Amino acid sequence: MITALKQSIKALKSNPGRTALTMLGIIIGIGTVILVLSAGAGFRSLIDNEVDTLGTNTIFIQTKVPPTTKNRASNSQSISSAFSGVTITSFKQRDLDDIEKLPNVVDSYGIVTGQALAIYRSNKKSTIYYASSASRFNFDKTELAKGRVYSEAEDSSGATVAILGSKVAEDLFGQDDPLGKLFRLGNLNFQVIGVYESQGALSDTDGIVFIPITTAQKKLLGIDYMSIGIIQLADITKADSTVEQIKILVRDNHNITDPYKDDFSVQTMDEAMATFNTIFSGITYLLIAIATISLIVGGVGIMNIMYVVVTERTAEIGLKKALGAREGDIMNEFLMEAVLVTVFGGIIGIAFGAFLGWVVSLIATNANMTWTFSVPIYAVLLAFGVSASIGIFFGVFPARSASRMDPIEALRSE
What we know:
By secondary structure, this protein is of the alpha+beta class. Helix content is 56%, strand content 17%. Strands 2-3-8-5-7-6 form a 6-stranded mixed β-barrel.
């Protein structure tokens, strides 16, 4: 085996250009797998941070378009009103007030969102505004860079005060201190009372203006309903029973007798994470499948190159067999070459994928995302295992072809 290893290394060194090209498919495939798994680990750390911000003891209630028929199979997954273009106006503050009376509910707040032009002097920016009651600040752990949050009194009175995301503050005010200054949002003048620290996370908080929900409902939109409710629980272990209580309560408020005609959906944080994991896993599997195709193509390329090598070294094979080399010796030598190519390619691919994963984490960190760089140990072991397996699987056929050569016919080829 040692002799076969030495001869294989010597053969690979004799034609480094071909060896490098042979490795390329393996490098790309293994590198892609490592990148996907590394970036996946970082993305999960980002999601975990977002969950920590809201808290795991959180329930979401969101308006949705009820099914149009009684066909339960085709209508079991109704569309959120936010994506359907249909406005559901039945979810109101009284629903949250009643929900807060449930024994396992600690607090809640409603949300309304919209888009408007923000103007300060000659600076203009189309921005999303996020309107919620002051109760939101009992949930949200996002820190302010300066200023304060708005109060319950300011919310209930419809005060025109605003907290800016860091990007909005920069775009509108530049290097000026925005605190206390007035800017126009839609048809109203708002006073800046706070600016958030730069977040750069999934919700893009940096580009949003935060205002009291009463102000948005009465003065900007002229509505009395909301699209989303966030509910905080005292005991997360009772989440399922609390969800059922909420459904019964809201159905009663909305005069709904058939659950399949619900104009709202209720989801726990665990359910939201389960949905995310399903989507994320699907994307991960798709990317790994693409990488697998690259590995298979690389394996076929290795097999073809090894057949070429066998043809080029026919006389050498004949001479070795004439001098007493056994079929097993010849097979081991060529199989070792194929495995070395794939393993070396795998090592380079691991380093390449880890480097790309580090670059992604660097970009994310510079964007103020909570992104942890890591290369899971199972990914490295998997890469080594896959590399060696490809070498064995695609190398065994040309190796066997070489080992079965007739020495006399092989020597005649010279």
